[in-house]
Amino acid sequence: MLAPYAKKEMGEDMEWWHIEAKEAVDKLQTDAKNGLSSKEAERRLKEYGKNELRKDGKQSSMLRQFFAQFHDFMILLLIGAAILSAGVSLANGEGDLLDAVMILCIVVLNAFLGVFQQSKAEKALEALQSMAAPHARVLRNATVREIPVTEVVPGDILLLEAGDYICADGRVLESRSMKTEESAVTGEAMPVDKSATLCLAAKTPLGDRKNMVLTGGYVLYGKGRVLVTETGMHTEMGRIATLLSHTDAQSTPLQKKLEKTGKVLGIAALVICGLIFLMGILQQKPPFTMFMTAVSLAVAAIPEGLPTIVTIVLAIGTQRMSAKHTIVRRLPAVETLGSAQVICSDKTGTLTQNKMQVVCIADYREKDTRQAEICDTIQHLFALCNDCNVSEGRLTGEPTEAALAENAAQSGIDFAALRKEMPRVGEIPFSSERKRMTTLHHTADGWISVTKGAPDVLLERCSYCLEGSGQVAFDHRRKSQARMVNGEMAGNALRVVAVAFRQWAEKPNITEEVLEQGLIFAGMAGMVDPPRTEVKGAVASCREAGIRPIMITGDHILTAQAIAKELDIFRQGDGAMSGAEIEHMDDDALAKAAKNCTVFARVAPEHKVRIVRALQKEGNVVAMTGDGTNDAPALKAADIGCAMGKSGTEVAKGAADLILTDDNFATIVAAVKEGRGIYDNIRKAVHFLLSSNIGEIVTIFVAMLFGWAAPLLPIQLLWVNLVTDSLPAIALGMEPTEGDVMKRKPHKAGGSLFDDGMGMQIVWEGCMIGMLALLAFGIGHVYFDLEGQYTIGRTMAFGVLSMSQLVHAFNMRAAYSLSHVRLGSNHWLLMAFAVGVLLQVSVMTLPPLAVLFGTAALNTQQWVLTIALTVAPLPLVELEKALRMHRANTKAAKAAVEKI
To answer: How large is the greatest C-alpha to C-alpha distance in the chain, in angstroms?
Structure first.
């Protein structure tokens, strides 16, 4: 049993690079082969804490957030006015403090609501971050386990491979050609070769410690096993954490736009409120009452909460997307999704099922070789040059390798016996640039190197080929035959992998220049990878939504075209291009060629960046998928980078905006649909808030303009703001995506939120709400109030202004007609409406509250009139929608006729 690891004293530094790997293992009291036990790992986690950098600055407490709500100048002005009002009342001996106390109470309630909104937004974003948190593979209890990086502890054995982020400092125990990129810590961008055998001087500079890996770097190439020596703030990254860990929350482009819009509207509201105050003074109304009315209106009407509401709606939407296999890493991506015009997708695993099956073995002459001896040799070679694991008789590994291994096993090859008989002594790992991998094995007669990879890459490195029972020169004629066989297989939508070998009397150097030259070509395997059943429907949805799907693959161009045709990505008249052709094009030529190209084959990662930029150059908003480390630049260059959750490396995930947890093209299309729905919901929430605020301003401004009495008291204005501002807007953010959202063209990237006439709709709807409230005030005052009183008129206006806004929230649910919307499909809005109406009716009917809010009990006739005016926005807005739809249809019909 492992002895407990003694925690180091703070400030005690170990020079892990200065000692042998075995000594480091002993010092950390761990087991290099089996790793820590779960119990010991749990104990160390409690002792050392989580493997994370401490955030700079304290998280705001709820109390601090509460007081932050009072930083707004207008709120402070209102509080000051309320206190002054109370002081004046007391000085005059009136003792009437109700108005002042109630105003303060509503301001405090508003502050609590603001804290609730902020807290909800923060929690949603935290949940988002935890979903996208990276994982690490470690040895625990002699088994490989994938755990969150925050749970990695000193003494863990970390398993690394190309594309992995390095989450802790560690001593290298084993390196299989492992190279890392450590510029985030050392500042040096050059790859660093790692070695387990080195024992370096104590004063070795950080960038030269080749037997160590550093937090913040990532593995560029190869594989390795690492002993974790430091975690969290004890790492080299932790030493400079104060420089790196302080990150301000970034606002999304939409939030920034709305912040500016809010400021403009806020200034306009202040100007109008100032005019209202001056008009009241000129009309010889009590200055203090007018001041309180103007300030209350300003507080109610200024849309300071727009960015917060947007954050909440975005966060709610991203949580909904996570349930549909899409993890959003960056909020701006949700906005951009709705304007995606091109989706560039990998083929294998995204458009296809990634369930490979070998269907034919070929030599250089024929698709299905009839020579049993050559076929057996090919299968043995594929079994040797293979990273699949055999455990309890089961093969596990990357799909292509698993298919080759399964085929070899079915032919009677015993993996365990073969690997024991011909043990692997070295390797040159596969990479997307090289498109091949090589292994070196010790045999009874010496050594054999085996190389497998893309046929067109391997053919150029072969000097001989198998023929009959021996080998012959692989001349131009034979290579041409091999290319024809490869082309025939690719044309039948098969994925083709070739294998070659070379024998050695003495152990060779394990380098590309030595092992991968002068090879003997053995043959090829053709594998079928059927398309995902749901992808064809997703492609059809793309086309209907005005989105162009493009396939990008490393496979042969004929294989790519065959699959693309089957999925309706590649159509008559479309272009297909290979990586070799891209190499010979400048950026302008590529942009021109990419206009009608739907298949890019034999593409290297660096080509992806050029493809993205070429498409963007033509004004397209581009989504790009990727899974490898070298796909990271393309994912960053794309407007929407989509990393694969299953096959993607941590580096690719870190560079992406979205992570697709099921690696499925249909999920990208579903994410676009959700993105469009979220954008719609933000528009609905903003539309509702601004039209409601304009309604409040119109109510007071028009009354003052005509010299009428104030239709509402200051306390009533503040109450309307409290009841109508938040809950309905948030509920609209939970609106289900409209059914026709994927039948529309993408919305313009960077376009205004108020496009398509929304700005004018907001203005007229605001005027409508204001005029309905004024009508209620006029009817109540003229027909029901006693002479010199305004209580009934104000009560009716108060009820209509508040509840008509709650009713108006339902108008936001559909752009054209509510007849297509199921009432119960958004129960959150029904709940918000019910709560709002209940609160409003309470302050109008319960005697204690009626006294506080200056309302009077309404009779049946007055309630009927109030309710009629309250629901009036529904038919009025429906009529406006019908007229707008008629105009749109007339315009479309006219355009169609002109086109004919």
So the answer is: 118
Alpha-carbon distance of 609 to 615, in angstroms, equals 10
Q: Which residue has the higher pLDDT, 817 or 838?
A: 838
**Cβ 197 vs Cβ 187: under 8 Å:** no
Dist CA 461 CA 519 (whole Å): 6
Burial class (CB in 10 A: 0-12, 13-18, 19+), 423: exposed
The active-site residue, picked from 156, 164, 346, 725, is 346
Q: What is the pLDDT of residue 59?
A: 52
User: 192: which 2 tokens?
Assistant: 């660093």
Q: Residue 170: beta bridge partners?
A: 213, 228
72 catalytic? Reply is no
For residue 750, give the 3-state DSSP assignment: coil
Contact 337, 674 (CB under 8 A): yes
Nearest to 229 by CA among 8, 55, 502: 8
Confidence of residue 10 (pLDDT cuts 50, 70, 90): very low
Region label for 309, one of left (φ > 0), alpha (ψ between -120 and 50) or beta (otherwise): alpha
Note whether 347 and 551 are within 8 A (CB).
Answer: yes
Q: Do the strands 143-148 and 135-140 form a parallel or antiparallel pair, or are they unpaired?
A: antiparallel
Would you mind telling me the total number of residues written for the chain in this entry? 900
Top mean-pLDDT range of 11-15, 366-370, 374-378: 374-378
Give every CB contact of residue 760 below 8 A, 6+ residues apart in sequence: none
Neighbours of 864 (CB within 10 A): 11
**What SS3 class is residue 127?**
helix
Q: Is 442 helix (H, G, I), strand (E, B) or coil?
A: strand
Instruction: Please answer whether residues 428 and 510 qualify as being in contact, where contact means their C-beta atoms are separated by less than 8 angstroms.
Output: yes
CB proximity list for 764: less than 8 A, separation 6 or greater = 880
Task: List the end-to-end C-alpha distance of the chain, in Å, as a whole number.
Answer: 85
In eight-state DSSP terms, residue 201 is -
For 449, 451, 562, 571, the CA distances from 457, given in Å and listed in that order, are 17, 11, 21, 29
Rounded to whole angstroms, how far apart are CA atoms 90 and 100? 11
Q: Residues 404, 410, 411, CA angle at the centre, nearest 5°?
A: 95
CB-based burial of residue 33 (10 Å sphere; 0-12 exposed, 13-18 middle, 19+ buried)?
exposed
Read off the tokens for 665: 């093209």
CA atoms within 13 A on the CB side of 366: 7
Q: What is the pTM of this model?
A: 0.73
Could you read off the pLDDT of 232-291 as tens digits, one per residue? 888 887 776 544 344 344 455 666 676 777 777 778 877 888 888 888 888 888 887 787
CB-based burial of residue 502 (10 Å sphere; 0-12 exposed, 13-18 middle, 19+ buried)?
A: buried
In angstroms and rounded to an integer, the radius of gyration of the C-alpha atoms of the chain is 35
Q: How far apart are CA 315 and CA 306, in angstroms?
A: 14
Q: Residue with structure tokens 């409290």?
A: 722
Query: pLDDT by residue (tens digit) across 389-406?
Result: 776 667 777 888 889 999
Residue type (1 letter), 293: T
State how far Cα 333 lies from the chain centre. Answer: 6
